[in-house]
Write a structure and sequence with these properties.
It is a single chain. By secondary structure, this protein is α+β, with helices and mostly antiparallel strands. The chain has one domain. The protein has a five-stranded mixed β-sheet with strand order 1-4-5-6-7. β4 and β5 form a beta hairpin. GO terms for molecular function: ATP binding; DNA binding; helicase activity; hydrolase activity. It holds the Pfam family PDDEXK_1. InterPro entries: PDDEXK-like_dom_sf, PDDEXK_AddAB-type.
Amino acid sequence: MSGVFCLLLGGAFYLWYRRRQARLTVYRLEPYLKILEPIPLCGAPDVVWRRKGSSTLIVGDYKSRANHRIYESDIIQLSVYRFLLLHTQEKAVADYGYIHFNDGSRRRVKLLREKQISKLYERYRKVLAGNIEPSKVCRNEYCRHCSHRAICNKKN
């Protein structure tokens, strides 16, 4: 009898989970977004969701990595997409987004505010201009794929 109960409980959980997942509908897939003001940015979020019954937009990004760890760079990436949506769409944009993993799971993450993105951009410009030193990374393998490796003073 307990096996049947577990089966029923598992089925009920599955239906609840699928129903919960279905509350988001696709608004746009991989839209290329570009702005020049207040700061020049461009990007293409993997998906922009709209919650059913609401016009609020939610950014999402798919990750194919095996671990489900959320990195600071993931949050910055989604936050930039949110910034772009705020300045290109005439709809409200949620202050959170979703990281989707290849096993079908997703994690909700709180995104940076516009002011924080602007500060990161200003820091980036100062680093490129040579006015400040870039922050050191904790692992040298991050440098392998950096587009600024040729101009960086960090020794590998």
